[in-house]
Give the backbone structure.
Amino acid sequence: MTWKDIAGLSIRNLYRHKSRTLLTVSGVVIGCCAVVIMISLGIGMKQSQEQMLAGMGNLMRITVTSAPRNVTKRSLLDKKGVDKIRKLQNIKAVVPKKVMELGELNLIAGEQGRYRCEYTTITGIPEKDLGAAGYVMKDGKMITGRPNEVLAGEHFAYQFTDSRRPEGKNMVDYWSDEEARPYFPVLETAVEIAQKEEKTENSEEGGSSGNVSWKGLQKLTVVGVMKQDYDKGEETDNGIIMGMRDFDRLQKEIRKAVNIKPSREYSQVLVDVDDISHVDSVEKEIKKLGYQTSSMESLRKPMEEGVRQKQMMLAGLGAVSLFVAAIGIANTMIMSIVERTREIGILKALGCSLSDIRTEFLIEAGMIGLIGGIAGSLVSWGVSAVMNTYMNASLTGDSLMLMADEAPSGVALSVIPPWLIAAAILFSVVMGVGAGFFPSNRAVRISALEAMKA
């Protein structure tokens, strides 16, 4: 017989026993649906976890700092150390940073030093690495390389007080009023780093906060304002960033003013890895060089392992249903062979080969799996849509397993990618053929003579 004849005969046999075929297919539908839904819940939990971690920080960034002085193997985090880190495998970008706190110095701006800031942090980054740092501009432009150009944090201007206003009313608090604007316009006025020489109190109500004499050290030009992002550094909030050449030059000036010894070590080094799978290995290599590291990997790995375990548990629950469906297919095929013994004998008497008879039963079993797989996938898609529409408001991927209270908004509870549908249908067909293998072998072993007597 040709393949067309065998397939046609198989379809007619399935159609002839519609009720039994429908019940067997229903078992496959339930099993396939259970597997797909369970796996889709696991995928939803994983995406929820990834979005939550992404909101906490850059998953592919490692922050490198100097190891404590009591550590046996301790290396200086200087230019030579940074060069060693750059030579490691799977490194995408290396951004060294120096941080200086202006505790004893002040910032002044405006006419006669009207606007004053008593504390801020200045961060120095090599000009060539500013692009790799990933700062996002909210206003203005990036540093062009001209002397003393700086970038200000998004809320840098809110730290300035207006010396012409009374104490307690001379500063804008952006925490209590986000729409309020600071007195000091960042991109319109030059900022000067200055040292106090003397200060006299003025206690009259409504007067200024005091008369201060200033000695200028360095004038800065704010060319841009960065969007706040604590993952990239606190300087994006209320600090300022300048090129490393300007930073080192400023440190020398400050050393003369307040006798602060500049350090040739970097405060920290930001290392971006090319792929999330390489973060752990790169972090270990950096530690071997004698440095201290921190990253999201210490949080990601345990959470990923927990999600993987829950995915396996969910898939296992669905697989039980699919196994029961496989038993149903095998039972259906065995019953079909018992009922069609005479038919098998006639086929053998007409000269049909054993392989054709075996193929007929395997095609029947595979068709049951195929129909059940397609129907089960469609039902799974509908169930997933209902869950995401009506249950996502009260449940999240992890709360379904009572493992977490909240998950990031915007993440679907059940996620069914195209590959899962294709895999479910293929697996249903393979399962059907596998379940029909033993009954088909039993069919070909039936004697033609005995079958004709039945």
About this structure: Residues 202-209, 395-407 have pLDDT under 50 and may be disordered. DSSP finds 13 helices and 13 strands in the chain. The first strand starts at residue 61 and ends at 66. The radius of gyration is 36 Å.
